[in-house]
Structure formats: C-alpha cells, structure tokens
Design a protein that fits this description.
5-stranded mixed beta sheet, single chain, 11% strand, rod-shaped, Herpes Virus-1, binds zinc ion, alpha+beta
C-alpha cells in the first residue's frame, strides 16, 4: 500500500475544520462559535493573542496587520504604546483560548470517504495518519481506494500475486540492460580502434608515390646513379613480394629501396627483381594473362633474378641455384636482366626448347634463307635490348654466357642424350653446329635520356616484349623469319616514350604502396582475430 495517493489533496486548515465542526453541530455549534470568534475577521480564532495591557483577544494575523497602521485597540479605541515599532512585544499568546480551540471535537478529513470518527482538533493529525478511510494506492497497480479497500484489493491483485515473478523478471531485464551497456562500450572501443587504424591507413595512402614525386626536390637528382644517399639505406621493411611466401623465397623491399623510385633514382637489384616478377606473375598487370593461346604464363616464361647473370659471367658454375625446380627447356622465354657497370639491359632467350628438340631428334633446322620456313617451328634466339645501344654492355658476351649456361643445363639434365654444342668443337662444320642455331638479335629499342633510368627501360622491354611476343595479332612473333630477316633491323623505338618511363616509376610506387597497405590490412585482420580469441567468454546469464 502506498500513502502517496492523497499527497495532492491539501489538508484543510484548522479554521476550516472548526467551521465544519460548528456547522455540523447546529445550534450548539453556533453558540460555541460565538465564544471563539475574532471580532476583527469574524471567524474562529487563528493563533489567539491578547494585547498588553488591555487584554482583548484577536487572531495574531488580524491584530498584527491592524497595529502596523494604527496605535489603538480596534475594539475600544484606547491608545496603545508600541515601542520602536515592535508589535510582537505587545502581543501575548492566549493559551487558555488556544486550549479551548484545541479541545474542540472535529470530524476526520476523510469523512467524505466514510470515516465517522471525531476527535479533538489537537489530536486530529494522529488519527488521520492511521485513518482506515485514508486514500491509498496499490503497491503494484494503479488502483486507489481507502486503506481497507486497498488491503482487500491487494489480496486479489494479479500484480501483487505475481510480484515475486515480476521482481525476478525485472532483475533479469536490468541484468540484460547492463550487458547491453557493456556490449555498447566494447563496440565503441572497437569502433575507436578501427577509426585509429583507418586514420593510419589514410595517412599512409596520403603519402602515396604520386604525391611524393611532387614533393621530391629536383636537387635530389643524381649525376652518378650509383650514389645512395642516407635515405636510400633506410632498412625499414615495407613489404615482401610475393606476400605470404617464406622470406627466403620472396623479395624483401625496404623503405630505402623504394626511395630509388623517385625521379632520378637508380633502380637496384631488388626493385628490378621485384617488378620483373610482377610483370610475369601478376595477372592484373600482365597482358599475358589475357591471351587464351598462351596457356599458363608461369609454365611458359621464367624470369631470372638479377644476380643470375652476374654470377654466371663471373664464371660461377653453380647455376643450380637459379634453376632449381625449373626446366629451362620447357619454357618459351627466359628473361635475363643484366646489370654491369651500373647499367641495366635485358636479354631474352627465346624458345630454348627448340634447341633441345633438335639435339634429341638430330633434327637439322631449315636454313634461314630457305623459302618455305615461314610457318616453321619457332626459332631459338637471344634478343638483347639495351637502352644505351652497345656502349656499355656487350651483346656478344651476354649471348656467349647464355649459350654456355644452356649447355651446362642440358648436360646436367640430359647426361645420356646427345650434347647440343653451340661452340666450335670436335664436330664443327656439321649442321647441328650451325652458329645460326642460336641467333643473336639486337632490335632497335627506345633509348634512355638520362643516366638513371636503365633499370626501368629493361623492365619495360620485358613488359612490351611479352605483350607483343605472345598476344594474338601482335607484330613480334618470334619465329625463324622474324629473327633472321627482320629482327636485327626491326625498329621498336615506338614501343614507348620517356614519358611512359616516368609514368612507370609512379606505377611501381603505387603498386608498392598498395602492397604495403595490403600488408598492414593483413596485420590488422590478424590482430583482430587474436583479440577475438583472447576475449574472455561472456558472463553466464542469470
Ligand atoms: Zn481574526
Ligand atoms: Zn478518519
Ligand atoms: Zn493492485
């Protein structure tokens, strides 16, 4: 039961109660009222006081208001003395009259609700606090009635009867609300972590190469391509390519390596090896992937790392390292980047398998000037493309070492077969040793305009060659006719321009930035998965 139900009802004043009591008592009440009536307000006394020294009694409020304007007794007109305006000092509570008033019997304020009790005005509060007719409210529903009615209601009120069940439900709801709040907090924390990471990614993306190129001062250009500034030795690992491969089998690219992609920077071995792999392997960047006739690119093209030719030409015969798991005679094209004297060029061995076929079959290749070879088998050759003509790299020397390599490979793999010998040797003069068997081709190609771009030119030759050599309808089909008749004099200078090379620097930087982002994203996903695994299990529900 709740007592709040009658809080809004202001209790009647003592004077209102007295008036009601006198009214209810009829003639006797009127008589009583006359004796307890203030001559100023004509109502029952409210805080009766008499005025010194006369002794007439008035309500305290009535006489105080009068004396603030007058200095006479309102009933008799006698002059009164109020020192220093202190009215309270001349008023004395009339205890006798107050006691009479307090002793008056008055009805309970809940008479209208059925209470028949009367009690002395002074004791009324005690009764009314516990009056059985005092309005009350059901503890669990909106029902309002007297205390007795509410007590009866609560015996049957479904909310009261089911109270304990409802309490348990409420406790459960509060519990669930707590869990929801916890979950929201966790979500917020995760959202914030995501936002922080996003900001990091955006900061990185903002540093993408396109913008860096603008920032890079022209003074950074080097006259000697060799000199590596302190920035180019920054060993911070940026990404590995291909990603997700053991470090020993992938190229680890550092911040310092990437600085070399700025205009005027000289590409080092790692950058050339990285992008050559991309050209061959990355389907999105290689036109080879779209040629339905070409088949599996990886099985047709092999790109050697740049230290292959360096070691080979130093007379290092341990070539197994570069051909482990690779049958070079099963390839259509072998891409060989050559770096010497701080200059890059590109050699391509075409159709080495044809050499092998002839060695096995003893097949004598049709001579190049016979008329009916046009649709004959593809012609083995070494194409050398150099962005500085023949001023730095010797095509003859490169061809010589590549012949040497092919022979070593053949002997290693086919010890029981007839050796194919491209050198003048014991069987010199036979058709098999026709030096035309492995032609050297030096087509005209775009030439570099500065000292630093040779690595990019070598990469671009590889890209353009693979596009044209294998795509349907392309002009450079590497067959016997092309090689023998046209290739040496063929002019490929329109393949691309210096502007394309500048563009290529930006493309490689963009790719590097993408690979770095991919690496960061992968690390973030790993971090999240670890967080999820480490999170404590949910609180069991109550
Ligand atoms: Zn009065
Ligand atoms: Zn009562
Ligand atoms: Zn109820």
């Amino acid at each position: 039961m709740a007592d709040a139900a009658d809080a809004a009802e202001a209790p009647p004043s003592k004077r209102q109660r007295l008036e009601a009591a006198f009214e209810a008592q009829g003639e006797e009440g009127r008589r009583k009222r006359q004796h307890l009536c203030c001559s100023m307000c004509l109502g029952p006394f409210d805080e009766p006081v008499f005025v010194k020294p006369l002794g007439n009694t008035y309500c305290k409020g009535c006489i105080t208001a009068w004396l603030s304007e007058n200095r006479t007794d309102p009933l008799t007109g006698t002059r009164l003395t109020v020192r220093e305006g202190n009215i309270a000092a001349v008023l004395v509570p009339n205890i006798a009259v107050q006691q009479i008033i307090d002793a008056q019997s008055v009805p309970c304020r809940y008479a209208a609700r059925g209470c028949e009790a009367w009690s002395a005005l002074g004791d009324l509060e005690a009764h009314e606090a516990n009056c059985p007719c005092k309005p009350s409210k059901c503890a669990r529903c909106a029902f309002v009635g007297s205390r007795l009615e509410v007590a009866a209601h609560e015996q049957a009120c479904p909310f009261v009867v089911l109270g304990p069940v409802l309490d348990a439900q409420n406790a459960r709801i509060r519990n669930l609300e707590g869990e929801v709040r916890d979950a929201k907090r966790r979500l917020t924390a995760e959202h914030e972590a995501t936002q922080r990471l996003k900001a990091r990614l955006e900061a990185l993306e903002a540093q993408r190469p396109g913008d860096l190129a603008v920032v890079s001062p022209p003074a950074a250009r080097r006259t000697r391509a060799t000199r590596a500034g302190p920035a180019e030795t920054d060993p911070t690992l940026v990404f590995q390519y291909p990603p997700g491969v053991a470090a020993s089998d992938s190229i680890v690219v550092t911040r310092g390596d990437l600085r070399r992609l700025e205009p005027g920077g000289y590409l080092n071995e790692k950058l050339v090896d990285f992008y050559l792999k991309v050209i061959v392997a990355d389907a999105r960047r290689s036109p080879l992937a779209e040629d339905p006739d070409f088949g599996n690119m990886a099985s047709a093209v092999h790109a050697f790392p740049s230290d292959f030719f360096t070691m080979l030409s130093a007379g290092n015969e341990r070539v197994e390292r570069w051909t482990r798991g690779v049958d070079v005679f099963a390839k259509k094209f072998l891409l060989v980047p050559v770096v010497e004297d701080l200059h890059w060029s590109l050699a391509i061995v075409c159709h080495p398998g044809e050499l092998a076929k002839r060695a096995i079959a003893g097949h004598i290749y049709p001579t190049v000037d016979s008329a009916d070879h046009e649709d004959g088998p593809a012609r083995p050759c070494v194409i050398h493309m150099d962005s500085r003509g023949s001023s730095l790299h010797s095509a003859r020397k490169i061809e010589k070492w590549l012949r040497c390599f092919l022979e070593m490979e053949w002997r290693k793999r086919h010890a029981g077969e007839e050796p194919f010998t491209l050198w003048a040797g014991p069987r010199a003069g036979s058709a098999i040793m026709n030096p035309a068997d492995l032609l050297l081709a030096r087509p005209k190609v775009p030439q570099q305009m500065n000292s630093a771009d040779s690595g990019l030119y070598a990469l671009r030759y590889a890209q353009e060659f693979l596009t044209r050599a294998v795509c349907r309808g392309a002009p450079l089909a590497v067959n016997g006719r092309d090689v023998s008749l046209d290739f040496r004099d063929h002019d490929f200078e329109a393949w691309f321009t210096g502007r394309d090379i500048a563009e290529m620097r930006r493309d490689i930087k963009k790719l590097a930035a993408d690979l770095e982002l991919e690496k960061i994203r992968a690390a973030y996903r790993r971090e999240q998965a670890e967080d999820a695994a480490a999170r404590p299990p949910r609180r069991p529900r109550q």
